[in-house]
Amino acid sequence: PPVSVSHAMGVMIRRAMFSAWWCSQIAAGLVAPASVRPGARVPGEEYDVVVIGSGIGGLSCGGLLAATGLEVCVLEAHYELGGCAHEFAVDMDGRTVPSGRGSEERLFQFEAGPSLYSGLSPDRSPNPLKHVFQMIEEEPEWVKYDTWGAFLPEAPEGYELSIGADNFKEILRRYGGPTAVGDWERLSARVRPLAKGIMGLPSTAVRGDAGILLTLGAQYPAALLNVVANAESALAPFDMSSPESPFYVEDDFLRNYLTLIAFLLQGLPADGTLTAVMAYMIEDFYREGAVMDFPKGGSRGIVDALVRGVDKRPGSGVFRSTPVESVLVENGRAVGVRTATGALVKARRAVVSNADLATTLDLVPLGAHPAFDADRHLLEDLPLCKSFVHVHLAVPAHAVPDRAPPQWTVCSSWERGIDARGAVVVVSVASKLDPSLAPPGYHVLHAYTAGNEPWAPWEAFQGAKPNDPDYLRAKELAAKPIFDAIAKWAPDARDLAVVEQIASPLTHARFLRRRKGNYGLAIRIGEGVQFPPVTTPLPGYFRCGDSTTAGIGVPAVASSGAQCANAIMSVWDQLKLNRRIRM
Predict the structure, then answer these.
(1) What are phi and psi of 135, to 5 degrees?
(2) Cα–Cα distance between 381 and 375 in angstroms, integer?
(3) What is the distance between the alpha carbons of residues 297 and 416, in angstroms, rounded to a whole number?
């Protein structure tokens, strides 16, 4: 049971598409992420724990460990923090302005990753990132809203309605078939008891050892018994197509809609997703009083809160512009890292990689540890999710109508498949939610193909110059469905834009240091392959992020960071932190 519970809890709902690091520099002059900013802080020589990467997973792990009194060092290669969830700024001329280098009032703040968040503003929530904030006692301010727009095959003219149970039924009545509402009510009734157990167990309290009996069993006995009793169903793929399935959905619109939501949140269609994840999603999005949350300051608000959780602790710190070259292995154990400048940073307790799987493996030299090499051989060819094409626009405020929703999704055809190239596009106008993200009189738009851009068409451009005509044409072609999606609500946005940037999978590969620009592992449930755990065969070397057991999405990577920290700290330290969680 502990293994099943750990897996079920580790795969909580995936949120908010992410990835794309600087969707700017290819068009406007690239700045190497390894370049050290003048005046940047330099890490010390030794800490209890060294974390490689400042993504949400790495910062969550580092903040929790620092909260127990350990000295933690987080090393980030880039000069902006946050990994896939970082934010970047450009000025009126489209020039990149690193953090702290310009007047915030005249800068456009662009998000490189997540746009959609929920379960973060309530004081009591099952969201793992909320639990991390509670445990490190830092948190951003939240803007609450409830409207989401969509353009679907059944609704080509689009709609915008509040999320929540009643409004979703209205969508089903408008665009679904005669069985849609009945199918939904039966499905909700089937998953609600399962969701109650899953949402009653904090995935941030999961451990991989017998301590789970204390952190989950003793603290949440009813919810744990519920999950164990329903483990077979919870850990199975979510099957809406088979008439014999308890989750069968006859209506095509409802089935396609839920598959779309699953893909947006964790990169795989519903039939490749755990039933536990779908149960969480259905309950969280479509319950009474449901709202969406947005951090003040954009994704940087989230990152800054997590950074404070590390920096405020004695002997701990987060360091920019400090790329790691390799993990040091001595006497069969990870004992620190070597940075790109040749400096050694030792780790008394652990080294944690928040990089993608390929980088996590490559950081350990071949031959340094036989068992790790064997694991490397097993993991190096795991399937990867596709990448993204991103567009960032800075436009005069009148280019986006006041009545437009802050976010909208466009899917033009179910038949092509939602993972077909350019088939699904998400548009976010973050400055509608937080006007401080753009200068007065302007909006910032971030739009992207939702994890459906293949790597193969871009391989030929590796090493090409940013202004290579063929590369520019390829970006323009790939971005066409994105500009079409933007035009659904803002038809003049491109013509009026004062800043325009297009990023390809090559942008991801370069600035996020991700193999083939990937957005995480594409592991379908039911095919006998599992996400790698937070532990590795190399003693003292751990991993967290979207390439580990929790998978893709903001809640998932926060959960992975917490579970990684739990694997390093004692069960007693964990219990002290877990007392701050409010479910």
Answers:
(1) -75, -35
(2) 11
(3) 37
pLDDT of amino acid 40: 53
Please state the separation of Cα 113 from the chain's center in Å.
7
**pLDDT band (50, 70, 90) for residue 471:** very high
Report the DSSP pairing between strands 407-411 and 333-339: unpaired
Q: What is the mean pLDDT of the chain?
A: 89
Is residue 198 within 8 A of residue 486, CB to CB? The reply is: no
pLDDT tens for residues 129-181? 999 999 999 999 999 998 889 999 999 999 988 877 788 899 999 999 999 99
211 three-state secondary structure: coil
Q: Report the Cα 445 to chain-centroid distance in Å.
A: 19
pTM equals: 0.91
Among 296, 294, 316, residue whose Cα is nearest residue 304: 296
Give the integer Cα–Cα distance in Å for 115 and 31.
Answer: 25
Strand partners, 330: 333
Single out the residue of 445, 425, 436 nearest to residue 493, CA to CA: 445
- List all residues 6 or more positions away from 39 whose beta carbon is below 8 Å from its beta carbon: none
Task: Determine the Cα–Cα distance for residues 37 and 96; give it in Å rounded to an integer.
Answer: 14
Angstrom distance (rounded) from CA 328 to CA 350: 11
Handedness of CA 482, 488, 492, 493 (dihedral sign): negative
- The C-alpha atoms of residue 24 and residue 489 are separated, in whole angstroms, by 23
Report d(CA 539, CA 320) in Å as an integer: 27
- DSSP, collapsed to helix, strand or coil, labels residue 155 as strand
Which parts of 137-216 fold into alpha helices (H)? 165-175, 180-199, 212
Collapsing DSSP states into helix, strand and coil, what is residue 50? strand
Distance between CA atoms of residues 109 and 290, nearest Å: 28
Nearest to 411 by CA among 155, 176, 164: 155
So what's the pLDDT on residue 488? 98
